[in-house]
Every structure is written in structure tokens, then in C-alpha cells.
Amino acid sequence: MTAGQAGGAPQWLTDLAARAVSLEVPPVLLPPAGGGRASAVLLLFGESEGHPDLLIVQRSPLLRRHAGQPAFPGGAVEAADGGPVGAALREAWEETGTDPAGVDVLAVLPDLFISRSGFVVTPVLAWWRRPVALVPAADGEVTSAVRVRLADLADPANRLRVRHPLGTSGPAFRLHGMLVWGFTAALVDRLLALGGWERPWDSGREEDLPPDVLAASRRG
User: Fold this and answer.
1) Which residue of 2, 25, 69, 72 has the lowest C-beta tally within 10 Å?
2) pLDDT per residue as tens digits for the range 30-42
């Protein structure tokens, strides 16, 4: 599958895409020398009523990996995909009904490594030129999909840090009934900074990962 031409993307997004290709990868997310299983996620930006937004899905708590977590549409790269761009577009279509013909790919970001699952993840940044109604996957892999306004993600009232029992902590966002944390939240945090949307917030506001969220992640 291929995306359309990128001529209609707004300036704020083309500027972000230009910066994101040089995203600095923290040591904990650097892919190991031996690599890992190739996968891709779609960072799909759009505008609704003049407000920039970002597509986030809620994964089923019954999944084998990343159970119950808010995430970007995505998954493993398959042979027929032709690479991470094709995989990201296919997964978004399968998980949310997003039409690849209405998506303009603007940038492919540096690979990131998720040690828990062993995946090397390629983020694909795109403009949702022709949005469609979101339809969560019929197979139950995704329980909901929502377009989250960047202004809401940047709102200090929605920001916090969460602690994992292993001793690590990281950025998180609480909105739309979701707790966005882990890999997805770390990437959102960097995108807000790169795009100039980040607002001062209380980074000392730290909470333990809720027991139900932790239990779901351990099942996944």
C-alpha cells in the first residue's frame, strides 16, 4: 500500500516532520547490535475543527503483547508490506479503518527498541489528508480509537509521570479515560517538544502505575 502526495500537509506538521527525522534516541531505546523483530507504528496527525490532533488506539486487555495499553496503530512488518511504511499503513487500516489512500507519509523516524517485546519499532509520521470515521478492528484487538487534540496532550493538567515496580519511571498522559504511558507516552512527549506545543508542567507529579494497568501489561 502507498500513501498519497504530501503537498497538502500544514506547515506545522511539515516542520515537525523535518525535525523528527533527527529525533535523538535515548540509550534505553537504542536497538541492540543483533536487532530485533521489525515493526512499525503510524503517527497519524490530522486537524478537526482547526485543532491539530493525533490518532491513538486502546488495545484489548486480552492481547499477548502490550495488553490494555493505549498505543499508536501498528504491528509487525510482514513480507508483503514492503517495509515499515507499508506495515504502518496496513495496521492502521486493519485496526481503525483508516484508508491508506487518504494518508500522506511525511517522514520515517529513527528506529526504537522495546526490550520487553524484542521489537525494533520504526515510527512513520503522516498527515491524515482525508479522514474517515474510525472503526475499531472487528477481531477485538483494538477496543477504541480516538483523535486526541495536541492541546489536550500538552495541557499540564493531563500530564504526570508513572512509576513501574521495577523502579523505572516515565512520562504519562491521563485523558479520554485512558492512561497513556510507556513507549507511546515517551514518543508523544518528544513530539510535543519538537513541535513546540510543550507547556510547563509539574514533572514532580508522579504516581505508581495503577494495579489494573500493571496486571494487564504483565499478561501482555
Assistant:
1) 2
2) 999 988 999 999 9
| Mean per-residue pLDDT, 177-203 | 96
| Confidence at 170, pLDDT banded by 50, 70, 90 | very high
Q: 44-80 burial, b for 16+ CB within 10 Å, e for fewer?
A: bbbbeeeebbbbbbbbbbebebbbbbbbbbbbebeee
- Cα separation of 190 and 80, whole Å? 31
What does the pLDDT read at residue 2?
Answer: 39
pTM for this structure? 0.92
Q: Supply 52's cell numbers.
A: 491539530
The SS3 call for residue 165 is coil
For cell 513530539, what's the residue? 191
Q: In the numeric block, which cell numbers belong to residue 166? A: 521495577
CB 42 within 8 A of CB 124: yes
Helices (H), 57-181: 84-96, 150-154
**Confidence tier at 67 by pLDDT (50, 70, 90):** low
Residue with cell 504526570: 160
The DSSP output letter for 69 is -
Q: What pLDDT is attached to residue 5? A: 42
- Give the residue from 8, 53, 3, 43 showing the smallest Cα distance to 23: 43
Residue 106 CA to residue 217 CA, distance in Å, equals 32
11-219 homologous superfamily: Nucleoside Triphosphate Pyrophosphohydrolase (3.90.79.10)
Question: How many CB atoms lie under 10 A from the CB of residue 215?
Answer: 14
